[in-house]
Protein: Chromatin associated protein KTI12
Amino acid sequence: MALITISGYPSSGKSQRAAQIKRHFEARLADPFYTGPSLSVVVLDDDTLNIDRSSYNDSRSEKPARGTLFTAVQRNLAQNKIVIVDSLNYIKGFRYQMYCAAREIKVRVCTVYVLATPDLCKQWNSERTDGKAYAPETLANLLQRYEEPSSMVRWDSPLFTVSWSDEDVPADDIWRAITEGVVKPPNTGTQAVAKAPTDALRTLEHTTASVVSALVSEQANSGSLGGTTAVTLSPMLKVRITLPPRNVTLSELQRLKRQFVMLHKKAITLGTTEKGAVDWSEQSVADKFVVYLEENMKP
Structure:
């Protein structure tokens, strides 16, 4: 239903804000006057996923920690859940990765930026007594590397900034963003590609060659120049093509065939994100090739 990304400095109060959002939303969902869909609110954080603060001491241990968090995000994203990701989320590339995962599931997104000064974060970190404080050198490194969210980029917007001096989060605004905001379609890069059948390349080569041969024979046999003509490739395969008012040479047809084949090889080898099923049958290839010839043959 929605992905809410919490971002901010280490020890800036992110978990407190995530808890406030969860409390507001659960109260709203439990209200007798609530008439929307049945939803659950899930908070994913380092503690529930057993990610120790020491994981951020170096990049070698931090990478699998982010992988654990991202896997949990993918597993929980659903149309009946509001997922709140309460972690550092300080790298814009990681926030973009979660944004793409949310778009693939077609859920709404927003980012909550928990704002606090570095000095306050250092003070609050040193005062922690729960054993979850960051090492001083780790904290300093994370503060330096933090990449601030921006409302100007699509993966951070809509962006809500909550200062350390604010008593509460803008719950009503966040609720509207995740329930009424635009559901963006998946990125082309995240869509599953439709793979061509294993014999598609052979069909492409064989069918286009058959069309070229049939056109050359038809011109030689009929002696006509131009006009619409029916060409039989096999008892089950026939096409109609409109030729220019001249004799179309074999070399021109072969050149256009090579161009057509090259244009479609990539879709066969890498797949395509075209909507609907992609038809690589002989009839479909022949029809597409005829259209290509009609558009590219010189008058």
About this structure: The chain has a mean pLDDT of 89. The chain is about 45% helix and 15% strand.
